[in-house]
Amino acid sequence: ALSDAQKALVDPLVAEHDIFWSRAQIGFTEFSPGDRERYPPSRQRLVRRHPGSGRKCLYLSAHASHIVGWPLADGRLLLRDLAEHATQPEFVYSHKWRKGDLVIWDNRDTMHRGRPHDESHPRDLRRATTLDVGSTLNEAA
């Protein structure tokens, strides 16, 4: 859903992902002395090729703090613009839960967010994680 010009702009870019950046944006600033060493920033391609489908997709999350090699303000503005574009209503699926529902998604090309729910209704949440999400820097675009 990006224009050809936007695709050409973002295709070669690398974003630095930093959990401390994303947590600070929502007010969490207290970390233990060793946390920075345990959870260092990670550089990832902004556009990755999905390993299953081969389709290109944005590798974008709240952890993306800036674009490597860009002025900080410009990179953050681009990341914000991309997130706003990707979360327009026509690109968002919001599940209306009914008893017995099972929802599965692929984190490799999905931005997702939990939402408040009616706690008077029990939920059973389970997660399965695959190990194919390493560095995207060596992936061909």
Concise structural overview:
This protein is 23% helix and 13% strand. The relative contact order is 0.19.
- Placed side by side, the strands forming the largest sheet appear as 2-1-5
Number of helices: 4
End-to-end span in angstroms?
A: 17 Å
Give the CA-based shape.
globular
The low-confidence runs, each spanning 5 or more residues with pLDDT under 50, are none
The radius of gyration is 17 Å
Order of helices and strands: HEHHEEEEH
Proportion of strand residues: 5-15%
Determine the mean pLDDT. Answer: 88
Kindly state the percentage of residues in helix: 10-25%
The counted number of beta strands is 5
The structure class reads alpha+beta
Largest sheet: 3 strands, antiparallel
Question: How would you describe this structure to a colleague?
Answer:
The structure is a single chain. The protein is of the alpha+beta class. The chain has a domain at 4-93. It has helices at residues 4-10, 19-25, 35-38, 72-86, and strands spanning 14-17, 42-45, 47-49, 56-58, 64-67. Strands 2-1-5 form a three-stranded antiparallel beta sheet. The protein has a two-stranded antiparallel ribbon with strand order 3-4. The longest helix is centred in the middle third of the chain and has 15 residues, at 72-86. The radius of gyration is 17 Å and the shape is globular.
